[in-house]
Amino acid sequence: xxxxxAIIALFLISYSVYSQNPGFTRTDxxxxxIHVDSVEAKSHAVINNPYGVAESLRVVLVSSNxxxxxxxxxxxxxxxxxxxxxxxxxxxxxxxxxxxxxxxAKLPGITGxxxxxxxxxxxxxxxxxxxxxxxxxxxxxxxxxxxxxxxxEFSLSQNYxxxxxxxxxxxxxxxxxxxxxxxxxxxxxxxxxxxxNGQLTxxxxxxxxxxxxxxxxxxxYSLRAGEYVDVKKxxxxx
Length: 238
Description:
Layout: H1 2-18, E1 23-26, E2 31-35, E3 40-49, E4 55-65, E5 72-76, E6 88-93, E7 96-105, E8 113-122, E9 125-129, E10 133-140, E11 144-148, E12 155-156, E13 167-174, E14 178-185, E15 191-200, E16 203-210, E17 217-225, E18 228-236
Parallel strand pairs: 2-10
Antiparallel strand pairs: 1-3, 3-7, 4-6, 4-8, 5-7, 8-9, 8-10, 11-16, 12-13, 13-16, 14-15, 14-17, 17-18
């Protein structure tokens, strides 16, 4: 009797393991920034093989939205990196977690934003699949650099140097991925420069502002990110 109970228990455990779906989890922020002069952005993810033995799994592109003037979206799995345009990557994965990455390729100077959604499925039973995971990337312009990827709150720092002639730097932080606008205005409220206008991931950024061609005087710069708004003033002295 005990023998039969052990056999049944072993069967139930085995069935439970082999009826599980593979896991797929994004480890980077949903939006990964790529500099306008860069040629590639990577989004890392983890595939979980829950079956206790090496298993053939495939990563499948569900949908993508990539600018037509970009080279496209691709994948690097446990074995190799595939060229852009490849929509399925099949490989044998060991038990547990394995890191792979999705990448976006473009030419230097090309701007825009791109997204792609992927899932992982078991080759022997494609109905056993992970939930779809969406990745994204967006360019940020020349003169903007990310200093840190970990911040706790929104902030807009005083530019430095201040007063300045004609170059100054403006630091700002956003604690989550958001659409960001950083603009400069003159005393009459006229917009004189757009430093940032697009999606950025969480982090601290530094923007370079060159006031060449502008007259001496007081200027304002405004940061908008979601519901957060802050304005500070700076002085150009020539």
